[in-house]
Amino acid sequence: MGDTKQDRCFTFVQVSINPAYQAKEMEYVLRLVGCKGLVFSASFKTQNYYQMLRQVAPDIAQCHPGSVVSKTYAGGFDS
Predict the structure, then answer these.
(1) d(CA 11, CA 63)
(2) Is 66 left (phi over 0), alpha (psi -120 to 50) or beta?
(3) Do residues 54 and 61 touch, judged by C-beta distance below 8 A?
(4) pTM reported for the whole predicted model
């Protein structure tokens, strides 16, 4: 790893979200951990996580993949 502008160092911390959570519970957990980024499947069984996330942060619908930022959250959901 050098010292050029292209070098990046990332630290990932996994926070599991109960698959039974609904939108309000998801919002609480995301705020509690100070979430800066999300990696998730679109759905699991009967849960549609993307739709849940849109309920929590409706402004993400206008974002492009890889550039998701929500004004709902101070730090945003940078992906």
Answers:
(1) 24
(2) left
(3) yes
(4) 0.63
Cα dihedral 54/44/16/26 (nearest 10):
30
Q: Encoding tokens for residue 3?
A: 């010292």
pLDDT in tens, 62-75: 887 777 777 776 55
In whole angstroms, how far apart are CA 25 and each of 35, 39, 56, 60, 62?
Answer: 14, 17, 10, 18, 23
Length of the chain: 79
Q: Which two tokens stand for residue 52?
A: 């849940």
Report the helix count and the strand count for the chain, using DSSP H and E. 2, 2
Chain mean position to CA 79:
7
Q: Which residues lie below 8 Å from residue 66, measured CB to CB, with a gap of 6+?
A: 79
Give me 41's structure tokens.
């499947």
